[in-house]
Structure of Sulfurtransferase complex subunit TusB:
Amino acid sequence: MLHTLNKAPGQRAFRDCLALLQADHALLLLGDGVYAALQATPAAALLAAAGAPVYVLAADAQAAGVTDRLMPGATLVDDNGFVELSERFIRQLAWY
């Protein structure tokens, strides 16, 4: 399953997403969700502990000014990468 999250770590959607995120899922952070992948933060530690691959929409990370401060292991993707993830994971769950 591909989870897409566009809410900041302090929002309920972040906690709800983490509760369902499994190691064989993937998480794509977009909009305010990119702040969850900031290195050395409690949110990033929670994401790392979930064991699922974390992807960050590059345009949103650039707009937020956080591209160079992302957690280790987070992968930047462009719109084509988003489409590829959507094709790889048949089911998607959006967290807004």
